[in-house]
Design the sequence.
């Protein structure tokens, strides 16, 4: 693996290199990731490693005392995949003007189906979020032994480059930035029959808050989580009134260990990265989705000419 990596090291002089690392099992992962990290250390490139917690120590031991390599637990940082791009942006801002490297593994066996889809959306959006990066090489590991073929196929579509044990190459399946920048309208599963529905319009934010508070508590959310959900629903309903035709629909239902709240309106979201950038003081819009991503365990956004749906998940424990 180190030979293949070294063969393209010179290519990482400018731009954003987004690469899927396809590995089979822990040993292959540690070998490939260690080679990448040692080259980063030799080059003096600041490097952030965001992988599930149990994978950190084997890598840390192999680059001991390397002050340029930092580690974070992806299971904490990326529990909601929409928080990962802000973490990478913060890392890039802290080391502005220097070539950067990273290892980020947001997808592992055990992710729920809803989390997996949002992780895949995140992987696609990375190409857009860092399209103007000066020099940033990000490797995203995928365990081919633990993940299904359809997940690996999607990794090839979301990464311009693919690294395996034998070679590094361009991905012929990469879908390109135009597809990433288009409104994301893949359908979500229909709400269950037990979902409780409220239509709202201008001047009815208090009604939305009372509805979400009552039914969130009835569904088993702890008081603090009820407060979070009410705050998020209020912000999303406000967006509906400002940008979504002045009215909308809110639904709420329990789903396994979580409570789901969905706000639907007639608006269309044009910015695919909305909710993944901290809103500036003068920014119009985007605050509600940013807040949702900070307070909720998962946020799903779908938008098309027929309207926008935001579905937020908060765990009951």
Sequence:
């Amino acid at each position: 693996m180190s030979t293949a990596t070294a063969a393209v090291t010179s290519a990482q002089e400018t731009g954003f290199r987004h690469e899927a690392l396809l590995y089979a099992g822990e040993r292959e992962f540690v070998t490939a990731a260690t080679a990448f990290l040692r080259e980063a250390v030799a080059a003096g490139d600041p490097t952030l490693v965001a992988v599930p917690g149990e994978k950190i120590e084997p890598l840390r031991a192999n680059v001991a005392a390397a002050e340029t390599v930092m580690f974070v637990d992806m299971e904490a940082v990326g529990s909601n995949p929409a928080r990962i791009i802000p973490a990478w942006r913060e890392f890039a801002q802290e080391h502005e003007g220097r070539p950067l490297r990273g290892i980020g593994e947001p997808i592992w066996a055990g992710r729920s189906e809803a989390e997996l889809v949002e992780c895949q959306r995140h992987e696609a959006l990375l190409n857009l979020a860092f399209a103007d990066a000066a020099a940033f090489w990000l490797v995203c590991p995928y365990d081919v032994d633990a993940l299904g073929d359809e997940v690996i196929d999607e990794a090839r579509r979301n990464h311009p480059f693919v690294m395996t044990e034998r070679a590094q190459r361009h991905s012929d399946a990469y879908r390109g930035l135009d597809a990433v920048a288009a409104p994301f309208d893949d359908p979500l599963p229909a709400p269950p029959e037990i979902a409780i529905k409220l239509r709202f319009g201008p001047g009815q934010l208090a009604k939305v808050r009372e509805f979400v508070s009552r039914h969130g508590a009835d569904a088993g959310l702890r008081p603090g989580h009820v407060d979070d959900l009410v705050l998020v629903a209020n912000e999303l309903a406000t967006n509906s009134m400002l940008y979504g035709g002045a009215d909308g629909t809110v639904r709420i239902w329990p789903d396994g260990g979580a409570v789901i709240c969905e706000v639907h309106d007639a608006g269309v979201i044009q910015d695919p990265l909305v909710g993944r950038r901290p809103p500036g003081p003068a920014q119009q819009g985007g605050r509600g989705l940013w807040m949702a991503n900070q307070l909720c365990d998962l946020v799903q956004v779908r938008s098309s000419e027929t309207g926008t749906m935001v579905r937020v998940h908060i765990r009951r424990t």
Notes: The mean pLDDT is 92. The domain at 2-181 is CATH 3.40.50.300 (Rossmann fold). The chain is about 40% helix and 25% strand. The longest strand covers residues 15-23.
